[in-house]
C-alpha cells in the first residue's frame, strides 16, 4: 500500500521526521471521522497518535504508524499500531509511569496515550524495537 492510501480503512504512515507526526495526527483524525467519532474523541485520538509518533522520532526513528478500522461483533473503532526497530524499552512498567522520561520531557507520552484510548498494549524487546497497539471504540 502506498503512503496516503486509505483503501479498506487502513493507512500506513512512515515516521521519519517531525512532519510525519503531523501527517499521522491528521490521518488518524480523518479515519476516526470516517469511523464515526466526533468532538472530543477526535481530539483524544489525534493526541494519542501524536504522542506515540513523537516517541518514534525522539527515541527510535524510523518507524511507522498503522491506522485501521476495526470491528467486533458489538462495536466499531479505530486501531493504531506504532512500531519501530529502535533500542526498545528496558522497563515498560517504569515507562508507563507519569513523569518518567529518559529525554527530559514531561514524560506524558505513553501513560497519556493510555488514558486517552480504550485499549493499550506495549510490547518491546531491548535492541529490537517497540510496538504500541491502541484502540478506541465508538461510544
Number of strands: 5
Q: Approximately how much beta-strand content do the residues carry? A: 25-35%
Q: In CATH, what is the class? A: Alpha Beta
Main sheet: strand order = 1-2-3-5-4
Low-confidence segments, ≥5 residues, pLDDT <50? 1-5
The SSE string, one letter per element, is EHHEEHHEE
Query: What share of residues is helical?
Result: 25-40%
Structural class by SSE content: alpha+beta
CATH-level-4 superfamily name: Histidine kinase-like ATPase, C-terminal domain
Gyration radius, in Å? 14 Å
Folded structure, characterized:
It is a single chain. With 139 residues, the protein is an alpha+beta fold. The chain has a single domain (7-137), classed as Heat Shock Protein 90 (2-Layer Sandwich). Helix content is 37%, strand content 29%. The protein contains 4 helices and 5 strands. It has helices at 18-35, 40-60, 92-95, 109-116, and strands spanning 10-15, 63-71, 76-84, 119-125, 129-137. It has a 5-stranded antiparallel β-sheet, covered by helices on one side. Helix 1 (18-35) runs antiparallel to helix 2 (40-60) and helix 2 (40-60) packs antiparallel against helix 4 (109-116). The longest helix is centred in the middle third of the chain and has 21 residues, at 40-60. The radius of gyration is 14 Å and the shape is globular. The termini are far apart. The model is unreliable at 1-5 (pLDDT under 50).
What's the quick description here?
Strands 1-2-3-5-4 form a five-stranded antiparallel β-sheet, with helices on one face. The protein has 139 residues and is α+β, with helices and mostly antiparallel strands.
Amino acid at each position: 500500500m502506498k503512503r496516503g492510501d486509505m483503501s479498506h480503512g487502513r493507512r500506513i504512515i512512515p515516521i521519519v521526521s517531525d512532519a510525519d507526526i503531523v501527517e499521522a495526527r491528521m490521518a488518524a483524525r480523518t479515519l476516526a471521522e470516517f469511523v464515526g467519532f466526533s468532538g472530543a474523541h477526535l481530539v483524544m485520538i489525534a493526541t494519542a497518535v501524536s504522542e506515540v509518533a513523537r516517541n518514534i522520532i525522539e527515541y527510535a526513528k524510523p518507524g511507522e504508524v498503522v491506522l485501521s478500522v476495526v470491528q467486533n461483533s458489538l462495536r466499531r473503532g479505530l486501531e493504531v499500531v506504532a512500531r519501530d526497530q529502535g533500542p526498545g524499552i528496558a522497563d515498560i512498567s517504569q515507562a508507563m509511569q507519569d513523569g518518567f522520561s529518559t529525554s527530559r520531557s514531561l514524560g506524558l507520552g505513553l501513560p497519556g496515550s493510555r488514558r486517552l484510548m480504550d485499549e493499550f498494549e506495549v510490547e518491546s524487546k531491548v535492541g529490537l524495537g517497540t510496538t504500541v497497539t491502541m484502540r478506541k471504540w465508538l461510544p
